[in-house]
Structures are given as structure tokens and as C-alpha cells.
Amino acid sequence: MSLFGNYNTPGRGVLKAPQEKKGIFKFFEVYGRHMWKLMELNLLYFVFCIPMTLMVILMLMTSNPIWLLLAIPSVLVGPATAAMTKVCRNYSQERNAFLLHDFWDSFKKNFKQGTIMGAIDIIFAIGFMVGIPMYKYWAEQNSMIYIPFVICISCLIVFYMMHFYIYLMISSTNLNMKQIIKNSFYLVSLGIKQSLWSLLASLIVIVMMYLFLPYSLFILPFWPLSFICFVTCFNCYPVIRKHVIQPYYDQRGESNPEFAYKNADPDEQLFEDRAAEETPVKTKESRKKGKTIS
Fold it and tell me: Running DSSP on this structure, what letter comes out for residue 282?
């Protein structure tokens, strides 16, 4: 009998393919393994968010449009988001990832599309910041205005959920921006379960950060941004793989390199799995009676 378990049972020793837990158990196992690296990633990404954060805070405090000039450097949030998404995707799918190398490599490769998407995000963010309070004020005067107010809120939610897929496709595919935006809109509904879980996780984090202000500001540089991104990649990348990436390889008659370990060449394997040939190990039962202490 071993100290921590019985190792005499027949079956596999070292596994050729990863045997994963499922659902929330797998999530916390993978997240716990990369938690400290994700905190470093959050800090790196937060540097790019400083101009946009200042713009929002100063606009809310002063209502001075001069602070909109901070939107110019804020477009760099786009390439930075694509880079963070690439690292979180690798972590969530249990691939090899080198934080700084992968971040800067993805930042440079996706700079054009990331900057375009960053500019779109800034425009929409300013539009929602102006439109939602305006419609809310008008709705208090005229109840009919609640219709465009609700439409505006709905558009904000859908636009936010599209981001679960936009930056993943920027960092994982060779699609152009038109295809990425169109696909992200459809993927929200095709992966509605994953989209809603990611939305719920995001809302919980945002509400927690708001409720614990100003103390939550101290953890803002270290935790929430990369956590939300990791949750999104964990939930939504399989949807992209199923509906975007895998059909591409199926159409070309090629195998998806993500599943290369399942189709390994027997001649290149380092060991042979012969678990089925193993027989149970018979342990001898001791006939001696145990000593008693009187």
C-alpha cells in the first residue's frame, strides 16, 4: 500500500494526450496554474489602458470635451487587447506560452487590425457614453423615448459580446476585419451558452469592482482585465474552433494542427501505450495478526 494511493492498479502511466477535467473544475485548475503569469499580463495590459481610463474619468468629472484628445493614444488598446487575448488563449487551451515574447509578437503582427478595432471601440464607447445618459434623461420626460433607450442598451450588450470573438479571431485567424466583425455577430448566437457565461462573469467582476470602490482600484492593475479575458478565451475559443477554424481545415482536407497529438505517427512516438495488456498485480495478504497494545 502506497502512502498516497494504490499504484498497483493496471492501466496507463504517462498519458500520451492530455486528460482534462471538465467544466468549472478544468477552469479553476488551468487558471490556478497560470494565475501569477496572468497577473503580470494584467499589469502589462493596464499600461496601455491608462490614456483611455484617464479620458473616461476626466470626462465624467469635468464634462470638458478637450479630454477626448486622449482617445488618440487610446487606440493602442486594440493591438494590446489582441496581444493579451493571444496569451490568454494559449493559457486557456493549455498551450506553451511565453508571456513577453508572445505579447509583443502578437502586438506587432496584429497592429493594423488591432488599431482599426481600437478606433472603432473608442468611437462606439464615446457614442454609448453620450447616448445612454441622453436617452435616459429624455425618457424621464417622455415615456416613448424608453424604446430607443432600450435599443441603445441592447446594442451595447451585443457589441460587448461580439468582443468575446473579435479579438480571438484577430489573433487566431487570417480573416479581414469585415469577415471578423460579421462572424463575431453570428458567433454570439451560435455560441449563446458560452457568450452568456462570459457576459455573466464579466458583469460579476465589474459589479464587484464597483461595489468595493475605492479599494478595488488597488487590484485593478493586477487582476480583473486578464481574468475576464481568460474566461472569455476559455469559453469562446472552442466556438471559434468549431465554426471558423475547423471548417477551414475540413474544406482543404487537412488535419487541424491543434489535434496533432491525437494522430501521432507511431514511428515517432517516444513510448508505446500498452495499458490494455497489463494485468492486475496480485498482492499477498499477510497471515500474521496485527499486534495489539494493552
Answer: P
